TrEMBL record:
CDD domains: STAS_anti-anti-sigma_factors
Family affiliation: Belongs to the anti-sigma-factor antagonist family.
A Pfam family it matches: STAS
Record domain STAS: where: 1-110
Originating organism: Leptospira vanthielii
Top-level taxon of the source organism: Bacteria
Name of the protein in its database record: Anti-sigma factor antagonist
């Protein structure tokens, strides 16, 4: 698994390449926790290049989203496809995690949420 980080409109964007499973989900958790330690509470996770994600990966994302909400932040997911999309549907995660078709739309949703609060 390779993780790329960037930002847009003060939103952290984490793009993942490769499988997310029990063996490497902690690496993703550590990066998300590090963002929160740095007071970055708006995060988009791009799964465009993730061919497989097991329940530990999904659990990491859901846990991060609930932690971010404690700080009035949020986590959005984008570019989910193939077997990852099936896992999201089968586990009902789409009702917990907001999934967007593109990185741009996920960032825009976070910016709109921020502006509605301010």
């Amino acid at each position: 698994m390779i993780i790329h980080e960037k930002s847009s409109n003060q939103v952290a964007i984490i793009s993942i390449e490769g499988e997310v499973d029990l063996y490497n989900a902690k690496e993703l958790k550590d990066i998300l926790d590090d963002k929160m330690r740095k007071h970055i509470y708006e995060i988009v996770v791009n799964l465009e290049k993730v061919p497989f994600m097991d329940s530990s990966g999904i659990g990491t994302l859901v846990t991060a989203m609930y932690k971010l909400k404690k700080y009035h932040g949020n986590l959005k997911i984008c570019s989910v496809h193939g077997s990852v999309a099936k896992v999201f549907k089968l586990t009902g995660m789409e009702s917990h995690l907001e999934v967007f078709d593109s990185e741009e739309n996920a960032v825009l949703a976070l910016v709109k949420e921020r502006e509605s609060i301010e």
